[in-house]
Write a structure and sequence with these properties.
The protein is an alpha+beta fold and 232 residues long. It contains eight helices and ten strands. Strands 1, 2, 3, 4, 5, 6, 7 and 10 form an eight-stranded antiparallel beta sheet that branches. A two-stranded antiparallel ribbon has the order 8-9.
Length: 232
Amino acid sequence: MNTDQNDDIPLNSTEGLRLLDEASCRQMLLVRIFRKRHKSGYCGAQSAAMLLSARHFGQKYRDPTQHADCDVSDVPYVDTNLFSYPQTTLVMEEEAMVSNGITLPEMETLLESHGISSKRVHWKDSIPEEFRDLAMAALSHGDSSRGVLVNFEFDMMWQGKNVTIGHHSLLAAYHSASDQFLLLDTFASAQDRWVRTEKMFQMMGTLDKVSGLFRGFLITGTCDTPKGIVEK
């Protein structure tokens, strides 16, 4: 799956910022705290960490629409400390994640271990219209009590060769007039960008050889009871 970014709109551009300002639904706490992964192979860990941290701030600040007044400097979960939480190590080994990555079902289990339930949807079992509707509904929760994680595949150059890798990242906003989602990409060299719904859906349409299942997306926080941060 070639996911050429040339037709996407970078968030850090005049047009990209305009789309964010005009977005039909958006999660500004997530946008503000979002960081790229620190290590190779940690895209899944960083996606989970950003979801957990955004929900933490959404619980802390009862009116997240006033996001500019919220102190989000002390981000509790990042990829480099996620495995210091006992909930994580109960369901996943760090070495295994680095070696094999995280499948979509494993990501669901990881989030559940931290008190976040998910609706898991695989590409072959869905259509773009369902994906759009589910993602929009989740992103309408400005407190990040719900979220959208996407598992897709892209091409990259590695050691002089073109290779295809699986990847996890997050959606943070939707602009209805242009039918685009804001993709916060955990990959260090990738731009955060606006991607059209049809393209975003097709990016998930590949087989994960580890799980034997098609990639897809998670709608997080569907019926969970917030647990808050547990001491490490």
